[in-house]
Amino acid sequence: MTTQSVREILKKFPYLFNVKLIREECELLTSCSTAEIIQRYRTMLSTVDKMIGTMSGEMEADESKEVKGLLFLQKELTDKRLKSTSKLLAIAVQQAHDVKVECLKLDPPHLLIAIHDSGVHQGWVLVDDITLPCTNDQGIPGMVIDLMSCYYARDLKYPKSFMILGFIQKTLIGDGNNDFFKSAKYIEFEKNTARPVCENSEYPMVYTDLDN
After folding, report:
1. In the predicted model, what is the mean pLDDT of residues 136-158?
2. CA torsion angle for 17, 19, 22, 24 (degrees, to 10)?
3. Which residues contact 138 (CB under 8 A, 6 or more apart)?
4. Residue 69 in 3-state DSSP?
5. Could you give the 3-state DSSP secondary structure of residue 93?
6. Helix (H, G, I), strand (E, B) or coil at 57
7. What is the helix (H) or strand (E) element at residue 130, kind and residue range?
8. For residue 168, what are the CA distances in angstroms to 8, 77, 163, 180?
9. What percentage of the chain has pLDDT greater than the value 70?
């Protein structure tokens, strides 16, 4: 994936800033339908449930657990030893009444999820001071797909601190060809947490070679 600025891409390909079209482009590039990725997402969460050891029940029936699963993965795959000038997270979750939908110029694509008191979730993909409302018709999985689609459709690299997106790339899309930065913490997580759970879980996760 390249490191073109989003502004350059916008000038050349304005259609890549339409979430629906971005998803369609991602499906063509990955040969994975939205339905397939959502099913893999459910399977991934069931496996993450085993990793955490504190959640139970049907993960797909409770979006709060979906959020907890994502935040768990992000925490485990965030290496604070990496030097970064930004504290930006790949996935941020806030209560709706506290949400500020804003993005700075040159910010990489990242996801903001707002949780309403009613339990409804709303999401935006924010990139380079551009706000893209998520389709919001498929819950949290759909929002994650919108975020990943932005990287695939625009051929962008993940920031080093966004290793959770590389993990999602391997588990949801099954793509081990597009390499991404892996810190020692990421490699340790795969070896000591992801591999044992995947091998012994009744919910085998769609996962490309862990040694890649």
Report:
1. 85
2. -150
3. 34, 38, 145
4. helix
5. strand
6. coil
7. strand 130-133
8. 26, 11, 9, 11
9. 75
**Domains of the chain: which residue ranges?**
6-79+86-200
Give the residue from 24, 27, 162, 22 showing the smallest Cα distance to 86: 162
Position of tokens 């899309």?
Answer: 173
What is the distance between the alpha carbons of residues 182 and 165, in angstroms, rounded to a whole number? Answer: 11
Tokens 């390909």 belong to residue: 13
Per-residue confidence (pLDDT) for residue 84, from 0 to 100: 62
Please list the residues that pair with 133 across neighbouring strands: 124
Strand-pair partners of 123: 113
Q: What is the DSSP letter of 193?
A: I
| Radius of gyration over every alpha carbon of the chain, rounded to an integer in angstroms | 16
Pick from 23, 48, 57: nearest CA to 37: 23
Q: Are strands 121-127 and 110-115 parallel, antiparallel or unpaired?
A: antiparallel
Query: What distance in Å separates the CA atoms of residue 109 and residue 146, rounded to the nearest whole number?
Result: 10
